[in-house]
Design goal:
Oligomer: heterodimer
Shape of chain B: globular
Structural class of chain B: alpha/beta
Order of helices and strands of chain B: EEEHEEHEHHHEHEHEEHHH
Helix content of chain B: 25-40%
Number of domains of chain A: 1
Number of strands of chain A: 0
CATH architecture of one domain in chain B: 3-Layer(aba) Sandwich
Number of strands of chain B: 10
Order of helices and strands of chain A: HHHHHHHHH
Largest sheet of chain A: none
Radius of gyration of chain B: 20 Å
Shape of chain A: elongated
CATH topology of one domain in chain B: Rossmann fold
Distance between the termini of chain B: 41 Å
CATH superfamily of one domain in chain B: P-loop containing nucleotide triphosphate hydrolases
Number of helices of chain A: 9
CATH class of one domain in chain B: Alpha Beta
Number of helices of chain B: 10
Strand content of chain B: 15-25%
């Protein structure tokens, strides 16, 4: 499909999700909350261990690298600043996003793609069950809620990773670490990270669902769509991150 | 005067340069069981997909219950679809739901029936296709023939006025074939339901059909070569129809190509290759 056609489909999918969110309840086909929770578990809760491990290792790495460089200037007291800024503003949302793309976004594409190939989507349409309402909207809501939640958890765990290095390697007391964090990081740093993760969630789930619903050509098609959904999601997320950083911190 | 449920006029559908359906016209009255027959790849399933509104024709008109569906907006089409059920060739069950949930799905999503009643309806519909007690299994845990029967149970879950079946009996054992045929007969005769069945199975076709449509092969692909009552079809003069219903390997649809045709086909340019 051409790029223009892809953007068109993207727009229509957005419109259709909005339609079912706002007008669906009035058309006697309301959203099923149980389906949303089910997807929240699959997209969010089950991705938690992986995001936790990623964030922890990044917190550790940042603190180690920071300590190494800042030690030359005798400024190891500023390691918490470095960890807090980097994780809250940039790496927290981004890395949680990458993990969720690899784990949940790809799963959504593969599942919807398999349903498309197996005529399940067509069967839903024939039963007057709109596939966007039935399949896409629960996944959309789940992702919009769970990615920011995972990001907040990821931030905490990343900061805990920084604490491990500061406490055990730099002999900083826990109280001093926390106090330094409080002085360095502003609420805005956390909020911008969360806003970023909301935008990422929207991009990831839309791209994954679009790729899944657009599958043609059997098992091979499902594989190709999954690959392209992961690649496209990551690229879109990185570009969006650059744009958002420019908006939040340059202007 | 009988009510016309389906009316197809001059239906043409092209995929690229290839014409899959070429001027199909027929009508179906209430209570009829129409059998659509024809060799593999002659456009039977494509025709069915057009009638249910899943595909839009290149030209021509399709009227269901007197309403033109080719130009109908999606919302109206969704309402119209509540009046018919579709049984897919391979069942098309939702793999993530159990058998029972699959049958319950159209009822739960399209009506506000009490959950207790839904359970009862699901049990009744599964009983119809001989699958009582399989409610809690996933589609992946049952056989292909069973999936197909669940698909039929789901198609009739909303008591539709119109039932579409894509090869409902292929892959079933003879006893189950007879059961499904009897079920279709019961539904059409007792409940005045209309059925459109795509089938290769001649025994089953002549057992349940009240009207038959034969689609051609080869040069006449995508056109109706014969239509009428089972008796008319059985005595149809067209040799291709006779070859088809008697299941003979050679005839107007050739088993082997003539040497010239064979050479032609071998040396065919790749650019002329057909694709769906």
């Amino acid at each position: 499909m051409s790029l223009a056609a892809n953007f068109r489909t993207f727009f229509f999918l957005n419109r259709s999700i909005l339609y079912w969110l706002v007008l669906g309840p009035f058309r006697k086909q309301p959203l099923r909350i149980s389906a949303v929770f089910q997807q929240m578990v699959r997209i969010g809760v089950q991705a938690f261990p992986m995001t936790a491990l990623t964030s922890l290792s990044i917190g550790l790495t940042l603190a180690m690298q920071g300590a190494h460089e800042l030690a030359r200037m005798g400024a190891t007291a500023y390691v918490p600043d470095l960890v807090a800024m980097t994780i809250l503003r940039e790496l927290g949302p981004l890395l949680v996003g990458v993990v969720v793309i690899g784990r949940s976004g790809s799963a959504v594409t593969a599942e919807l793609g398999t349903m498309k190939v197996g005529e399940e989507i067509e069967a839903l349409e024939v039963m007057s069950i709109n596939p966007v309402r039935f399949l896409v909207v629960p996944r959309f809501l789940a992702m919009m809620v769970m990615l920011p939640v995972l990001t907040v958890f990821g931030n905490y765990i990343g900061l805990a990773g920084g604490w491990l290095i500061c406490h055990f390697s730099l002999d900083m007391s826990t109280a001093a670490y926390i106090q330094r964090l409080m002085e360095a990081a502003q609420p805005d740093d956390l909020f911008t990270g969360i806003i970023k993760s909301i935008v990422f969630a929207w991009l990831i789930i839309l791209i994954s669902c679009q790729a899944g619903l657009g599958v043609s050509g059997g098992a091979e098609g499902v594989g190709q769509a999954t690959t392209s959904s992961v690649v496209t999601s990551i690229l879109a997320m990185l570009v969006a991150n650059a744009v958002l950083t420019a908006i939040f911190f340059i202007t | 005067m009988p009510d016309t449920v389906i009316e197809v006029r001059d239906l043409v559908r092209k995929f690229g340069t290839r014409t899959v359906l070429n001027g199909i016209s027929f009508s179906v009255n209430k209570g009829d069981t129409v059998i659509i027959m024809g060799g593999s790849g002659c456009g039977k399933s494509t025709l069915l997909r057009h009638i249910i509104g899943a595909m839009k024709p290149t030209s021509g008109s399709i009227r269901l219950f007197g309403e033109e569906i080719t130009t109908m907006p999606q919302i109206q089409l969704e309402k119209l679809r509540l009046r018919f059920g579709m049984n897919f060739q391979f069942g098309a069950l939702l793999q993530s739901l159990t058998v029972g949930e699959n049958v319950a799905l159209p009822i739960i999503e399209n009506s506000r029936v009490d959950p207790g009643i839904v359970d009862l309806i699901v049990k009744m519909k599964l009983e119809l296709v001989g699958l009582t007690g399989f409610e809690h299994l996933k589609p992946a845990e049952i056989s292909g023939g069973m999936r197909k029967r669940v698909g039929l149970a789901r198609a009739v879950a909303m008591d539709p006025e119109l039932l579409f079946s894509d090869e409902p009996t292929s892959g079933l054992d003879p006893i189950m074939t007879a059961v499904i045929d009897q079920l279709t007969l019961d539904l059409t005769q007792k409940l005045d339901m209309t059925a459109v069945v795509v089938s290769h199975d001649m025994t089953s076709a002549f057992r349940i059909g009240t009207k038959m449509i034969v689609l051609g092969a080869g040069k006449r692909a995508g056109t109706i070569i014969a239509q009428g009552t089972p008796d008319e079809i059985r005595n149809h003069p067209d040799p291709e129809v006779q070859q088809f219903i008697k299941g003979e390997p050679d005839g107007p649809v050739p088993l082997k190509l003539s040497p010239e045709d064979y050479i032609d086909r071998l040396l065919d340019l790749p650019g002329q290759k057909e694709n769906d």
